[in-house]
């Protein structure tokens, strides 16, 4: 048996055991992808991130759910960068680094807000794809009624590095009572059967937030729900400019997520239109929780 140290950091909250937990593994160059997968499964969080050397950027990041590798993960990126900065592996006077991911080289910036360290990451160019499945079955898979879905906004697949189905809902009331059946997702999401589902609303608990959301994992991921979702929050900014305010040049807002599962967190979203598309950024803080020793074959 081998043993590996995994750091548990929470992203999108400065309070330990709130926000979204991620496993962080430093200096992972000696691990095979099979070993990374085994570690991620044993850790059991929605994502575990492995930090490696890179010939193209300051760091290379690889992301694994308990079930498979993914291209990009917002909260795990924030957790990884927060860990390196707060534990002294990135100098205090260094305000930016680059990371190599499967969606390309992405910039990371650090700043202090109200005496808290924030990590800002750029995401991939947004993409959208139509959903043509059954809205009735979709509602049933989330444990809500068709009447809860806001048909004034489109249901679409969106990605800024990881695909998810964006589902607009009318009110907050159904979020607490949602009982998703992830096993139903692949047969409903016929265009992208391995995709997660991201229900959202513009009704919020916190007056400072513009959107409230939950995020339910693909059954292939080995988890049920993602507490506070960075990539889905980023693509929501692009969704807003693409479908809801086509004349606005940029948008900044806060997404609240995780209240229903006692993981209250905040994602700060900033999207700018460019000549070739959109630049999507998300920001969040973090918290160290504990060190975990994982034994694996």
Automatic annotation (TrEMBL):
The keyword Isomerase applies. Pfam families: PhzC-PhzF. Gene3D superfamilies: Diaminopimelate Epimerase, Chain A, domain 1. InterPro entries: Phenazine_PhzF-like (IPR003719). Keywords: Isomerase. One of its GO terms (molecular function) is isomerase activity. Belongs to the PhzF family. This is PhzF family phenazine biosynthesis isomerase.
């Amino acid at each position: 048996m081998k043993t590996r140290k995994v750091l548990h950091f929470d992203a999108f909250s400065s309070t330990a055991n709130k926000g979204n937990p991620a496993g962080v593994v430093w200096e992972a160059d000696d691990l095979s992808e099979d070993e990374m997968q085994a570690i991620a499964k044993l850790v059991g969080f929605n994502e575990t991130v492995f930090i490696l050397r890179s010939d193209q950027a300051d760091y290379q990041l690889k992301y694994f759910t308990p079930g498979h590798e993914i291209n990009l993960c917002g909260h795990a990126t924030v957790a990884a960068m927060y860990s390196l900065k707060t534990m002294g592996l990135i100098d205090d006077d260094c305000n930016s680094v680059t990371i190599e991911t499967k969606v390309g080289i992405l910039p990371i910036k650090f700043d202090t807000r109200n005496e808290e360290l924030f990590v800002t990451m750029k995401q991939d160019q947004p993409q959208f794809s139509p959903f043509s499945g059954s809205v009735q079955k979709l509602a049933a898979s989330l444990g809500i009624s068709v009447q809860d879905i806001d048909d004034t906004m489109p249901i679409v697949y969106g990605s800024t590095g990881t695909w998810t189905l964006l589902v607009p809902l009318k009110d907050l009331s159904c979020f607490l009572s949602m009982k998703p059946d992830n096993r139903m997702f692949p047969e409903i999401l016929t265009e992208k059967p391995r995709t997660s589902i991201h229900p959202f609303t513009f009704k919020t608990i916190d007056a400072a937030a513009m959107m409230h959301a939950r995020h339910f994992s693909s059954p292939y991921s080995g988890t049920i729900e993602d507490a506070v979702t960075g990539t889905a929050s980023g693509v929501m900014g692009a969704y807003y400019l693409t479908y809801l305010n086509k004349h606005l040049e940029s948008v900044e807002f806060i997404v609240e997520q995780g209240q229903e599962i006692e993981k209250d967190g905040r994602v700060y979203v900033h999207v700018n239109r460019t000549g070739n598309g959109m630049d999507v950024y998300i920001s969040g803080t973090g918290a160290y929780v504990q060190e975990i020793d994982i034994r694996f074959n």
